[in-house]
Sequence to fold (184 residues):
Amino acid sequence: MTRRTTSAVSTRNSTDLRRLTTAAVATALVFLFTFLIKVPTVIGYIHLGDAFVLLYAAMTGDPLALLVGALGEGLADVAGGYFQYAPATMLIKALIALPVVLSARKESTEGKDRSTILTPKTFLWSLPSVPITLGGYFLIDYLLSGAYAFPALWSNGVQAVGSILLFAVLGAAFDRSSLSKRLR
Fold:
């Protein structure tokens, strides 16, 4: 290996390590904001974790955001005793991150300024998280609990809409404070 090749490999390894470390910290934050700050409901709980999944997805545009959401919130279900929901939660939370990741990646490849987290596109692409959350949890609630799936729609709706609003507030706050530039 030449000195130039060694330097390129070292830079790539450093970038990969930073990317994985950032994803691991984000996963831990999603877990904490899902598991520790929650409001019990009829069949589960309302939490803040989804907002942090959306925030990470918009901030980085990294496909690891799907894993951040799946692991952070899936582990919170297991730790909270909701074992039966963990597989569905992992799929649903990966899916809520997907549109935002795709939007952020597209903006990056088009050469658009990615110095802000909350753009009209990232906000609009966070909206599909509502039907993904409602549909996914309605299906799993119905399969596991039958009639309880209907009253759970309300709390799941509050969860999904509240998460989008918190994502918007946090994204705007990070953008105004220039924190988003330092975290990238």
Q: What stands out?
A: The chain is about 75% helix and 5% strand. The helical segments are 3-35, 49-60, 64-79, 86-109, 120-126, 129-145, 149-176, 179-183. Residues 3-183 form a domain with the Arp2/3 complex 21 kDa subunit ARPC3 fold (CATH 1.10.1760.20). Residues 3-35 form the longest helix (33 residues).
